[in-house]
Design a protein that fits this description.
The chain is mainly alpha-helical. The chain is built from ten helices and two strands, in the order H-H-H-E-E-H-H-H-H-H-H-H.
């Protein structure tokens, strides 16, 4: 069965489904290594990060094992009695649909929405809002200093920014983005690609956003948020790093 070029709609799910069908038909045998990410991207006509999302989705579903530095290998599913949990049949997530949002899609959506919430916060935010952002960054720094992942402070910062807009629809939208991070695919990508070094860089990016909002400079705030999201996207698109020691 030849690999087919894909349309961009819901890309990682399309890629995962095509690879799942190939595995089911025996094109990739149990124990076999799936073609390299770069080769799959070329054959499918998509980006390498999109292939990566699909491979992680298949790993979460138990179709493959990702061995960092070696490759992606097909797992034996003969002992499984329950039907596979796929992105199309998984439990309803924060988006209210029966499929998990792709992590890279979420980041791109956040860039659009949160760029504007940062600009609005710079225009209309109050001192209490800026103080909340400062507390959130302080929390991030304290957790990072203890070698703890500063997710709590990160979430508090972005919610403080959107709360400064005084718009419940925007607040609930940003909360939805954060709830989507609890999905298994996003969580697995975080496990692979977020490090304490990357978090230190992210804290600096948050401080740049805060500085622009505190200075009441909407253009600078928007630009700082865009830069943060672009770098976030780049971190998830980087080369596979070595898996943490057990």
């Amino acid at each position: 069965m030849p690999i087919q070029t894909l349309e961009p709609q819901r890309l990682y799910r399309q890629i995962a489904e095509q690879l799942r069908v190939l595995i089911g038909k025996g094109e990739f045998a149990v124990g076999a290594r799936i073609p390299a990410e770069r080769d799959l991207a070329k054959q499918l006509g998509v980006s390498r990060p999109s292939v990566r999302e699909a491979l992680i989705a298949l790993e979460v579903e138990g179709w493959v094992e990702i061995r960092t530095g070696s490759g992606v290998y097909v797992l034996d599913r003969s002992h499984r009695t329950a039907p596979p949990v796929t992105p199309a049949t998984s439990a309803t997530s924060a988006n209210g649909a029966g499929a998990e949002w792709g992590p890279l899609e979420i980041i791109r959506a956040r860039r659009l929405v949160e760029g504007e919430t940062a600009a609005t916060a710079a225009q209309h935010g109050k001192r209490k809002d800026v103080d909340a952002m400062r507390r959130a960054i302080r929390m991030m720094r304290e957790h990072a200093a203890r070698n703890e992942v500063p997710h709590e402070g990160d979430r508090a910062f972005h919610l403080a920014v959107v709360n400064a807009c005084d718009n419940v629809v925007l607040t609930e939208t940003v909360q939805g983005f954060w709830e989507s991070r609890q999905g298994p695919i996003f969580a697995r990508m975080i496990d692979y690609f977020e490090t304490m070094d990357s978090w230190q860089a992210a804290i600096g990016e948050h401080e740049a956003i805060l500085d622009a909002i505190a200075a009441r400079d909407p253009a600078a705030a928007r630009d700082a948020m865009h830069q943060h999201m672009d770098k976030f996207h780049q971190r998830f698109s980087a080369s596979w790093r070595r898996t943490k020691a057990a």
